[in-house]
Amino acid sequence: MKPPAIRVFLICFLLFTSSIHGEDSNKSKFRDREATDDALGYPDIDEDALLNTQCPRNLELRWQTEVSSSVYATPLIADINSDGKLDVVVPSFVHYLEALEGSDGEKIPGWPAFHQSTVHASPLLYDIDKDGVREIALATYNGEVLFFRVSGYMMTDKLEVPRRRVKKNWYVGLDQDPVDRSHPDVHDDQLVLEATEKKSESQSLKDANGSSSGFELGSPELKSFSGLECEGLWMKKRLHSIVCLKIPLTS
């Protein structure tokens, strides 16, 4: 075969394989919906026509401000100082809880309040001392729930969540929960059906694994095992004073 013929053959082969891969990629369920806005390419923007358009809602930027650090939780919007105007309580990520005037974004006198932790949660209002005035509660990364008065003073009263030891491989054995954008997480009957099926499967597996016989404590059957060697005998205490005995089979 001459070199030009080989070259033509290779080009045809590459085109054929690329078309096959293109068909396979189009079969993905995530490609069923098209991003229509992206398909338009670069729009032809008419600045004069753009000036004549307006938002269907009467929205405008009233103010903007800076806080001490990044914000990873939703701010609390409430009238914290009872002046009839809404305020914005911002949980900064590191060390500070800030309070801003809702009308202009200015810092409320006495704020920000300092704490010695980081924050991933939104603040809320709760009357911890039962004086009729709700304080600002904030859960921190250290497992503490702190309370701040409307003046910015951090109260000595706080709640502490006790620490617990967590195994390094705590996630091993959990059910897989893949992210699937084709299933919405609100009012989706398919999610309910899948959850019901998984629950029934896990229950069937549990019944199959726990089908060994059990004996009441003090029963003659259990006492008859007292003469056996403990090696190779696995005992597990269950609820209601039931002991389940499993003797592994040996070949």
Question: In words, what does this structure look like?
Answer:
The structure is a single chain. The chain is of the alpha+beta class. Among the domains are: 76-160, Thrombin, subunit H; 214-246, no CATH class. The chain is 23% helix and 22% strand. It is built from five helices and eleven strands, in the order αααββββββββαβαββ. The strands form three sheets. The protein has a four-stranded antiparallel beta sheet, with no helix packed on it. A hairpin with a 2-residue loop joins strand 2 and strand 3 (94-101). Residues 212-217 and 222-248 have low confidence and may be disordered.
**Helix-strand string:** HHHEEEEEEEEHEHEE
Major sheet: 4 strands, antiparallel
**Strand share of the residues?**
15-25%
CATH fold category name of the domain at 76-160:
Thrombin, subunit H
**What is the β-strand count?**
11
Task: Indicate the percent of residues in helices.
Answer: 10-25%
> N- to C-terminal separation?
65 Å
Question: Judging by the overall fold, what is the CATH architecture of the domain at 76-160?
Answer: Beta Barrel
Mean pLDDT: 73
Order of strands in the sheet with most strands: 1-2-3-4
Low-confidence stretches: 212-217, 222-248
Decide which structural class fits the backbone: alpha+beta
**Helix tally?**
5
CATH class of the domain at 76-160: Mainly Beta
- Work out the radius of gyration: 32 Å
Question: What is the global morphology?
Answer: extended
